[in-house]
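FIELD: query
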Amino acid sequence: MPTYIVLYKLTDQGIRNIKDAPQRIEEGIKASEAMGGKVIGFYSVMGEYDYVGIAEFPNDETVLTLALAFGAQGNVRTTTLKAFTKEEFAEIVKKLP
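FIELD: result
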């Protein structure tokens, strides 16, 4: 399954309701798994972003659906990056003219 890195930023609403964040994170992980995803890791981080999630999903449409659903709740904004392993990258590079 493709791997995705999701960067999360708390909104004003999200920081006001920060005490509920651990429960929301667990609910988000369960929603991801219910849609066929596998969460590899989820981290609270310091810096430009507040959380980083790493997960595998069946396809781009599934991860987009979840990102839209999370955004619609109003607590976070997401930036989603599709990730390639070093082996996948090597195969892509081999195809260069």
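FIELD: remark
Residues 3-94 form a domain with the Alpha-Beta Plaits fold (CATH 3.30.70.920).
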